[in-house]
Amino acid sequence: MDAVGRLKEKGVKVIFVLGGPGSGKGTQCANIVRDFGFTHLSAGDLLRAEIKSGSANGTMIQNMIKEGKIVPSEVTIKLLEKAMLENGNDKFLIDGFPRNEENRAAFEEVTKIEPEFVLFFDCSEEEMERRLLSRNQGRDDDNIETIRKRFKVFLESSLPVIEYYNAKNKVRTVDAARPINEVFESVKIAFSSFDKKVTTNSPGNSSFWRLCWQKLRRRVPVTVAMTASCGKEAPKMDAFGRGYRCFRR
Ligand SMILES: Nc1ncnc2c1ncn2[C@@H]1O[C@H](COP(=O)(O)OP(=O)(O)OP(=O)(O)O)[C@@H](O)[C@H]1O
Ligand SMILES: O=c1ccn([C@@H]2O[C@H](COP(=O)(O)O)[C@@H](O)[C@H]2O)c(=O)[nH]1
């Protein structure tokens, strides 16, 4: 039987965990594993392990990570597929993937898996930058130059993936700028049911975001300077929260 057949036979369920670099995905995935019985697959960790293993793709992956670029889909998807097949569990948190539309379409095409939902950690660049600069795990890409490149890639390539799933009502957004335990309280609500959408796109505590949210609900176009969150102009986007909450209507 081929990989797709085996994944299907296993009845694999996948949740994509997305958010900017340093938004706290890995930290919260560890809590979800502990309380909800998922297996955590960090795409970044799988790629770093591939470098360490001395594989033929190692140097290419290392260079892409140093530049904050997105590794070709087929490489990452093969690693994810292998990890899911080798693990006895059937529930997976896929952290940090898909990172662009091409990743997303290729994953669905190759594996025939659609995520149950997307858990989106919403956090401002300011806070993410602070966290990454003090992460201290010896990562090659946790330096200010690469961090800025990673933010740009997230904004330009990864947010459209979140918009795609948002249009399908599959995104559960958590305000990730709060302390770890408070973020996890919201994560737990997102996981309280697989079928029901619980916290999807619910407003955070920021009154600024609340205003944007209310206007969005009323379909009133909102024009807000993106400098409030990331100092960039974003002509395609309507509304912004403290972080990257900026879905098209
Ligand atoms: N809510 C939080 N408040 C303060 N610090 C946090 C919070 N969540 C995580 N951190 C810290 O911020 C750093 C980045 O967190 P983490 O590695 O979980 O982020 P990530 O989204 O997985 O990052 P990346 O995408 O770069 O792998 C870590 O040092 C972590 O301990
Ligand atoms: O699907 C993926 C995941 C990661 N990358 C590359 O790895 C780094 C680090 O990723 P983290 O999620 O922060 O661990 C990322 O900047 C990319 O260069 C990737 O290409 N594809």
From TrEMBL:
Entry-linked PANTHER family: NUCLEOTIDE KINASE (PTHR23359)
Binding site for CMP: 103
GO terms, molecular function: ATP binding; nucleobase-containing compound kinase activity; phosphotransferase activity, phosphate group as acceptor
GO biological process: 'de novo' pyrimidine nucleobase biosynthetic process; nucleoside monophosphate metabolic process; pyrimidine nucleotide biosynthetic process
Assembly behavior: Monomer.
Catalytic activity reported: UMP + ATP = UDP + ADP; CMP + ATP = CDP + ADP; dCMP + ATP = dCDP + ADP
Native source organism of the sequence: Platanthera zijinensis
Record-stated family: Belongs to the adenylate kinase family. UMP-CMP kinase subfamily.
Binding site residues for ATP: 22-27, 135, 178
Role description: Catalyzes the phosphorylation of pyrimidine nucleoside monophosphates at the expense of ATP. Plays an important role in de novo pyrimidine nucleotide biosynthesis. Has preference for UMP and CMP as phosphate acceptors.
Keywords on record: ATP-binding, Cytoplasm, Kinase, Nucleotide-binding, Nucleus, Pyrimidine biosynthesis, Transferase
Alphabetical list of HAMAP family matching this protein: Adenylate_kinase_Adk (MF_00235), Adenylate_kinase_UMP_CMP_kin (MF_03172)
Domain notes: Consists of three domains, a large central CORE domain and two small peripheral domains, NMPbind and LID, which undergo movements during catalysis. The LID domain closes over the site of phosphoryl transfer upon ATP binding. Assembling and dissambling the active center during each catalytic cycle provides an effective means to prevent ATP hydrolysis.
InterPro entries assigned to the protein according to its UniProt record, in alphabetical order: Adenylat/UMP-CMP_kin (IPR000850), Adenylat_kinase_CS (IPR033690), P-loop_NTPase (IPR027417), UMP_CMP_kinase (IPR006266)
Record's keyword annotation contains Glycoprotein: no
Nucleotide-binding is among the record's keywords: yes
Cofactor note: Binds 1 Mg(2+) ion per monomer.
Record-listed a ribonucleoside 5'-phosphate binding positions: 48, 69-71, 96-99, 139, 150
Record's protein name: UMP-CMP kinase
Known EC number: 2.7.4.14
Cellular localization per UniProt: Cytoplasm; Nucleus
GO cellular component, one term: cytoplasm
Cofactor: Mg(2+)
Pfam families: ADK
